[in-house]
């Protein structure tokens, strides 16, 4: 798969050139630059979508309704029994099929509730992805988001489901599977670009969504993504902290608030291009996560990725729940070289971050209840 610039969709006409026959959508990996994981706790984040990795979903009209498994990501095909067991031990039992199933369910039920008519034609749905699996780059929601977009176009209802509602529906698909997560991934993947997100309780309760503001992507300094093949289930990492928060644990509640407050400062910092301050905020963000989740839950290898960057003076934090790290080198190119060397020695992959521009098309923009959102 090759990225097709800012447009994540590819719609092929049928033989007589009329109705679209095949619909394909991409959704890109996301980096939580500041504030995550407070998105799941009425907090705030600044997040971006990156071109480096993406998932794609393909919808083809078909007489039966088919949800197709992926030959490698769904573990239906392995080189040997020992390879199968090894992958089950590292990645768990599940692949993307359950995400496609849940997307169909949530989409259909929402349309029913809202009185949105869906025609009776069938389709087959298949997916592919190059997002490093379960590494906190939103690989799961990328599959859901791309599938959701295919359904919007197949049923021609893109104009009927507001952009700001879509991230919650995409999250509901994962919630239906028991995956504990917040909204930031889905917001970034629906909107594209660089986003400031405010999930304050009042707004969430009243509107059912947060306030999402697209920021100029040129405000982002050069960033690097560090990752390793070390899959972990984000839902499992999140569950104990979520439970403590629900139980009223004062430390978790105040730390989550502090993480969310970093974003207020972070927004000003970005707008003023005060990148030295940005570095401090990124580091503080990870330190707070470490205190809340504990080293055992975060994993030694994931912590080492953060430490490798810090040893050369770079700022670093998790992009998501663990497995990948976003690093910023305030001292410029020589520090980037030192970081690249250090990552190579430690066996970690490192790539410069390429930001995806806004993904909203004309129809999407018209669905927004407020142009500011
Ligand atoms: N690359 C992938 N291919 C297939 N399914 C995936 C992939 N990544 C995630 N999933 C599915 O999503 C679930 C949740 O994954 P998660 O830990 O949230 O990954 P990520 O950090 O990439 O979002 C997994 O248990 C699996 O069912
Ligand atoms: O912990 C985080 O920062 C994020 O974890 C999940 O993302 P993932 O890419 O699956 O690790 C979760 O979905 C996000 O809402 C959290 O902010
Ligand atoms: Mg996920």
UniProtKB/TrEMBL annotation:
The organism is Smallanthus sonchifolius
The entry's protein name is: Uncharacterized protein
List the taxonomic lineage: Eukaryota, Viridiplantae, Streptophyta, Embryophyta, Tracheophyta
């Amino acid at each position: 798969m090759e990225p097709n610039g800012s447009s994540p969709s590819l719609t092929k006409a049928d033989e007589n050139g009329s109705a679209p026959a095949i619909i394909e959508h991409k959704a890109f990996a996301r980096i939580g630059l500041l504030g995550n994981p407070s998105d799941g706790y009425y907090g705030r984040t600044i997040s971006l979508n990156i071109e480096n990795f993406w998932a794609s979903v393909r919808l083809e009209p078909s007489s039966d309704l088919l949800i197709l498994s992926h030959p490698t990501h769904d573990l239906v095909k392995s080189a040997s029994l020992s390879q199968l067991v090894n992958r089950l031990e590292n990645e768990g039992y599940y692949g993307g099929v359950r995400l496609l199933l849940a997307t169909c369910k949530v989409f259909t039920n929402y349309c029913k509730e809202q009185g949105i008519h869906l025609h009776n034609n069938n389709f087959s749905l298949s997916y592919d992805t190059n997002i490093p699996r379960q590494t906190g780059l939103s690989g799961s929601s990328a599959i859901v988001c791309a599938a959701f977009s295919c359904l919007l176009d197949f049923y021609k209802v893109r104009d009927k489901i507001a952009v700001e509602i879509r991230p919650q529906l995409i999250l509901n698909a994962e919630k239906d599977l028991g995956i504990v997560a917040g909204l930031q991934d889905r917001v970034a993947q629906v909107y594209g670009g660089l986003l400031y997100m405010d999930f304050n309780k009042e707004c969430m309760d009243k509107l059912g969504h947060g306030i999402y503001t697209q920021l100029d992507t040129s405000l982002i300094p050069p960033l690097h993504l560090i990752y390793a093949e070390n899959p972990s289930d984000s839902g499992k990492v999140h569950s104990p902290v979520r439970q403590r928060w629900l139980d009223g644990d004062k430390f978790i509640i105040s730390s989550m608030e502090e993480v969310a407050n970093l974003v207020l400062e972070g927004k000003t910092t970005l707008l003023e291009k005060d990148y030295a301050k940005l570095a401090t905020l990124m580091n503080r963000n990870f330190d707070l996560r470490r205190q809340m989740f504990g080293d055992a839950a975060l994993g030694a290898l994931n912590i080492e990725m953060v430490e490798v960057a810090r040893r050369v003076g770079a700022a670093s934090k998790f992009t998501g729940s663990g497995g990948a790290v976003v690093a910023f080198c305030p001292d410029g190119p020589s520090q980037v070289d030192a970081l690249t060397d250090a990552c190579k020695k430690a066996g970690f992959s490192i790539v410069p971050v390429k930001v995806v521009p806004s993904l909203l098309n004309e129809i999407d923009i018209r669905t927004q209840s407020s142009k500011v959102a």
